[in-house]
Amino acid sequence: xxxxxxxxxxxxxxxxxxxxxxxxxxxxxxxxxxxxxxxxxxxxxxxxxxxxxxxxxxxxxxxxxxxx
Length: 68
Description:
Blueprint: E1 2-6, E2 9-15, H1 26-35, H2 40-48, H3 53-62
């Protein structure tokens, strides 16, 4: 289980990753994107690394999901 922490405080944003799976299908990745409040395209950017943690936090703030 992975939890998002902002300014040292745990948020309600979380996702779970199975250690047994070698590859994740589209359905599972879509569920993960929903848990992280991202579109599937945005999740791909997180996984491929062009999106930084700061970029992700900026998206969550703009969408009103996280407040600083």
